[in-house]
Amino acid sequence: MRSYNELMRVLREKLDRASAEDGHHYLLSIASPSSAYLLRGMENFESLKYLDYVNIMSYDLHGSWNEYVGHNAALYDTGEDSELAQWGVYSTEQYKGTGYLNTDWAYHYMRGALQSGRINIGVPYYTRGWQGVDGGENGLWGRAPLPNQNACPEGTGGTGGKCGDGAMGIDNLWHDLDTNGNEIGAGVNPMWHAKNLEIGRQGSYTYTNGMDPESNPAHQVSGTYTRHYDNVAKAPWLWNAEKQVFLSSEDKQSIAEKAGYVVDKGIGGVLIWELAGDYSCYEIGANGERGAKDLSEQACLNGRGEYYMGDTLSNTMYEAFKSAAPYGNKRSENAVPVEAVNITVSVGGYKEGDQNYPINPKVTFTNNTGVDLPGGTEFQFDLPTSTPDNAMDWSGANLKVVESAHSRNNNIGGLDGAMHRVAFSLPGWSGIAAGETYELDMVHYLPISGPANYTVTINGTDYAFAFEYPEMPLAELGDVTDPDTGNPDTGNPEPGDCNLDGVNVYPNWPQVDWAGNPDHAKEGDQMVHDGTLYKANWWTRSVPGSDGSWSKICKG
Q: How many angstroms separate the CA atoms of 83 and 94, rounded?
């Protein structure tokens, strides 16, 4: 990620230089992952600040790379995703039932760093599918492992999982081949082909599309492809019970739901993969050939036409977008201060791989205001609702959620709001002198972009951070008072003298581990180190005074 962030920074710098020279703004955008599996590895997606737009690939959320049968591009979580259930997402207390394989979660992840109008959601004009599906409701949330797990394509299955038995033949029209020329089972079809399967029509194109229906039964339409619709996920699918084939699809009803979502959220628009998958209904000639496009969709549903490349889905979105209000350009959900101070923030220190749980970045605040900020000074910032409202810290600052935008113990049907507001105060023993830093040891449980919308309260007034609002006037700060006493700050004086007789001396830990060995201090325990008495702020094994888990009490 460090290399990627640097690439984006340099691209932005070069494009801005060219924009100034040419008098024309050059856009920089990316196609982004949408699954928390991948976004967790992209840390807090720092490079978003260099982009004009981000196009979320909110599809391929389920596919035959594993055995879990589900929607390709659900709009919302249903609380029933078999893959998420398998890995404990719904049962792990810290996740608060937050399902993250859906468009709504991915949008809220990006909203942590971007205005809604700079986000485009992905819409697939294709299916994904499995064969040999067992369980589920009409196949949905069932399982379809490849019978021979030794034959799994490279990179599929995953640690502790099984690769899926991807649909093939007539159910896999875009039949990609592996390096040996063998068909890769994936159930990938343009939507016009899926619509023909739905009405039981052997499309005229199958005779010239790498298939041989006359001699190969696998290339012939057989069984009944019944359309079902998930009213919570807002996603359709086709289920062929005779063949045990499941195809996760997209059609006019689901596209209308996604278009309405874009309008309601003030999202910039959509990313489509890919246009040739859209469909319209065409007449059938006397010899079975495809004629001109002059039939309604109902005609195809009644068996009087054939689906092929068209514009039904794109027109559905056009009709929704043409009268929409301007897209959203609001950074914060709260009132923004009128003045800023020069405090910078960096977020880093992420652990790698599976060690990065809970997600535990170091958020470093650098005080460039020119004045000392005393212990007790309050900071606030936003976290997107892609993470539950249980963020905390391990640095003694008592970070907590002060405004929850989503407090339900699930996100079935969508997340309620965009941003949680969190706050912390500098510990009494640790102000930030001018030019110095404070490191917040933050903890959250699902990935976020950001944080964003920082404020600090000084002398009772809230200030924004200048790096987020460079156009905002800088405040002229006078003497800063202690927020607890209201008196001018006197810095962080050394504690007074006291009698240390009989108090535990480091490393004579007052608590023991499971085997009865000296091990740790818990909240409230006191210990002497280098002639100073410290009190543990919470459970800790660290050296007294070495981090925020300890407070100075007095000196001997």
A: 18
| Integer Cα distance of 501 and 204 in angstroms | 94
DSSP 166: B
- Residue-level pLDDT at 318: 97
Using DSSP's 3-state secondary structure scheme, residue 305 falls into strand
pLDDT score, position 485: 61
Mind listing the domains of the chain with CATH numbers?
2-321 (3.20.20), 340-465 (2.60.40.290), 494-556 (2.10.10.20)
The residues pairing with 401 across neighbouring beta strands, listed in sequence order, are 422
**Burial grade of 62 (CB within 10 A; 0-12, 13-18, 19 or more):** buried
* Strand-strand pairing, 461-465 and 340-341: parallel
- Given a cut of 70, the residues of the chain with pLDDT beneath it are 158-159, 484-496, 513-516, 548
In the chain, the largest separation of any two C-alpha atoms, in whole Å, equals 105
- Which residues make beta-bridge pairs with 16? none
The answer to pTM > 0.85 is yes
- β partners of residue 488: 481
Match 């794109």 to its residue by tokens. 314
DSSP bridge partners of 309: 279
Give dist(CA 83, CA 98) in Å, integer: 13
pLDDT score of 486: 63
User: How much is the pLDDT for 553?
Assistant: 79
Instruction: Give one DSSP letter per residue of 111-162, joined into a string.
Output: HTTS-GGGEEEEEESB-EEESS-BSSBTTBT-B-B-S-GGGPPTT-S-TT--
* The predicted structure's pLDDT at residue 115: 97
